[in-house]
Design brief:
- It contains two helices and four strands; from the N terminus they run βαββαβ.
- By secondary structure, the protein is of the alpha+beta class.
- It has a four-stranded antiparallel beta sheet, covered by helices on one side.
- The longest helix has 12 residues.
Length: 78
């Protein structure tokens, strides 16, 4: 069981949401859910990892992807 659960909120380039979801899902088993959503953000990603360094690595990888405009990371308190 992962000790850290985080949610990454992503704003993408217009029309690139579904392409990004596919690319993000291919990162690995730490990505437990991806959803295209409506509103201020375009994609929500659920991430489960064992350490903050693992989380940093995954978030950095996603932030560097083409078509990612900006992100917000929420780390679950419970």
């Amino acid at each position: 069981m992962a000790s850290i659960i985080a949610y990454l909120l992503i704003v993408s380039e217009i029309g690139k949401e579904h392409d990004l979801v596919e690319e993000i899902q291919s990162i690995g088993s730490e990505i437990t859910e991806t959803r295209v959503v409506y509103g201020e953000y375009d994609i929500v990603v659920r991430i489960e990892v064992e350490s903050m360094s693992e989380l940093d690595e995954i978030v950095t990888k996603i932030r560097k992807m083409p078509n990612v405009v900006r992100t917000i990371t929420l780390i679950s308190a419970v």
